[in-house]
Amino acid sequence: MNTPIRRLAFFSMALFGVLLLNVTWIQAFQAESLREHPYNARQYAEVLTLPRGPIVIGGEEVAFSEPVGGDSESYQREYPSGGLYAHAVGTFPIRGEGVEKTENSLLDGSDERLAVRNFMDTITGAEHQGASVEMTIDPAAQQAAMDGLEALGKNGAAVALDPSTGAILALYSNPTFDPNPVSSVTDPQDAQDAWTELTEDEQKPLLNRALQERYPPGSTFKVVTAAAALENGAEPDSTMDAPASINLGAPLPNAWGGPCNGGEPDPLAHSIEQSCNTSMANWALELGDDKMTEQAERFGFNQGELTTPVPALESLYPNPSGDRNLLGRSGIGQGNVEATPLQMAMVASGIANDGDIMQPYLVESVKDSDLSTIEGHTPEKFSTAVSGQTADQLKDMMILVTEGPDASGPKGAIAGMQVAGKTGTAETGSGPTHNWFISFAPADDPQVAVAVVVEHGGSSGGEAAAPIAKGIMEAVIDE
Amino acid sequence: MSTATNSQALPPVKRRNAELAMTLAAIGLTMFALIEIGLTRNGEMPPQLFLYGGVFGGLAVLAHVFIRFFAPWSDPLLLPLATLLNGLGIGMLWRLDQGGIDRAGPMSQLILTAASMAVFAAIVFFLKEPRTLQRYPYIIGLGAVVLLLLPLLPGIGMTVNGARQWLNLGFTTIQPSEFAKIALVIFLSGYMVSKRDVLSLASKQIKVGRFKILDLPRMRDMAPMAAMWGFCIIVLVILMNDLGTSLLLFGTFLAMIYVATHRSSWIVIGLTAFFGACVALYPFVSHFKVRMVTWLDAFAPDVYCVDGVPDDAWCRLNGDSQQLVRGIFALAEGGVTGSGFGGGDVGYIIEVQNDFIFAAFAEELGLTGIMVMLLALVLMVERGMRIALASKELFIKMFASGISFLIGFQTFVVIGGVTRVIPMTGATIPFVAKGGSALLSSWIMLALLMRMSNNARKPAPQAIQDEGATQVIQR
User: Which residue among A195, A301, A349, B204 is buried most deeply as judged by most CB within 10 Å?
Assistant: First the structure.
């Protein structure tokens, strides 16, 4: 009887071996990922007791933590600017996207770049502090974007970039939301209810339209088509047939129903100034699928998600692959072309910066609690969209958009300087048109490049979006 | 079975001082646990330290002194291990009390420990020869069945957490299955020793090519297996929804029939029948499905039942893995070193004072502490197996190995369930879990093992003459 008893003893030991291996697997190897599992409520409760670093915009703390007081060890996150920066900054406790999420480990002090400081704090007995995050946003530009879109009373978004660095100067999405009610630590249930209400709102206030929504770019995309033409041997005075309407299988008319140059072939520069559909569609047809696709991709289309570090959707220029209708329409930013407002701001900034697009970024620097810089941003080139010569030619064409005799966007003009712009009024398939304006100023020394989209504005880019863009540009330049 | 090797394997030494030292160490660990909890939770030495430490430590030392007199040859490792586990259990219950999570725990556990140790002493004292139990296998077997069925009686039967395994006697509640399992081991030991020859008979062999795979027993000898199977499936699973006890009893039955017959065919037949029944019943018994889904898809959003998805009633019917997953999160939180006794957030664990007390240990003592606990349990099991090997009588061999396996398998069922190795079924960690029935049955098992080890290790009586050729063989 001893053999089976020995085997049973081994089997019992094996059972414990299984238990030991399993707890080792969970506690030693899986622990890290389980602690960050979205269901794990502990992480949320624990982080509330950490003194979290502030988020700074323009020298002001736009997000900071205050002790709740009383018996509670928790800190309450405060957002004194309300909805102004909500989409860029995010909320804490983390719910949606935003710098609160992307820079979380630095803000709460758990990042390994802070390990040495934390270790010193442990030795000296000082309280651990999170790092502070300084953002690139220009408060005046951001306020101008908010004022413009709120005054219009339409959904939409605005993005402003510093063309020479890629710094994001404004990132606003309308409607916005107040992060304070959804961040309440003292009444988490109220916060949850407020959040649920926001998620169910039909106007989608939580959607960051500047980064997370794609729209047909409409005529603003004509600068990409023009860039492709110029890069492939055309000149600003090269002409193209510009009748009242062309037939791509389905008719493609001009916005005003007439021809562009009195029925004569239209010079490229004039087609941009007047926003001629038929000639630009013909340019796309002449250039062909591959050259159009290549140019769009050099501007940033089809290049995957962008990390600012707040994520931005990929903008799409699906190669029409021989479909004449789609190719022609893509030349005027219709068909299957889709762009985020950030993408169109990058188009404008590339032309402003002699053809080079800089990598857009939101975080200027991260500073330790003793104000030493942990991480600073060094501007990097995202792509070379066009040559310097093409950029100059495009700039001249875009100046005509705001001040030429047939200007389509005069409301984007600023007194005392030249503004380069391009309007866009995109058909949506359903509902009123989206109204776009992209621009940069001053044209001779660009300090700011802007893209504004008014969702279902039902107006034109020159009417609805250009004044908002003008306000943002003025806000940056006036400083 | 060779007596010569056995007596060599376990030299006749008492090692009672070693037992005392280890028991004192276990008491010391318990006191340190209380101090750590007091300092962590309240920032002061626990005022009840000497009440708890004194009573608990005094009891353990008394048990040791008692053993010194009445079972001096017993295994010296068993009492310290039981003291350690019991002390850690009291420590954790005191910690839950201090955390405001479970207010009723520590004092009653201490009183129950005292009562259990008294029963332990009584058994060691009165049951001088455990083989006398062999005389009444059927009465004890009947007792086991009655105990298991008692909760089905209307009036005193009570359903807790879905399982009908409790008796409500008004002044107290009892979980009779905790005692039934011991009675069952006694019955099976007696029954199988007398029937092992029959049960070992092979009617035909199953071969693949030239290789013998299985010896099949005769159909008529299947009766005990069929009875056990039917009882476990029909009564325990279907009527009482007590999957934990069912698994425990059937597993122990298979282990014992294997020890008795040395035929792996019984294990194959038993496992096939048990899991076959589970599969066959799967579509009809709703709580099977709940358990399986909860186990396999614990992290799926609809199983975890994220707030309001789709609604609570749906969750109860289709699986609700919150308890399991939160236990796993507690393990993860503890990591390798744990948050320290009293330093964790064990309030996140659902039903932390019951099955999931293991998760609380894992969080606060970490992987390191859990390993100590598991090693203490496996040591106890293996020492029990050693007693079975060292014993000479077949009944004692069956009995000791059965009890040992019961302790080990019960630990596996409960901890495996909590850590998602197997589906959650509900059982108690020996010596650690809260509750009188569980604690008392643990100490009864310990008493039986101690008594059997004493008898096995006791050296044969000395020869009457110094240089005599005649040796008096015991009995």
Answer: A349
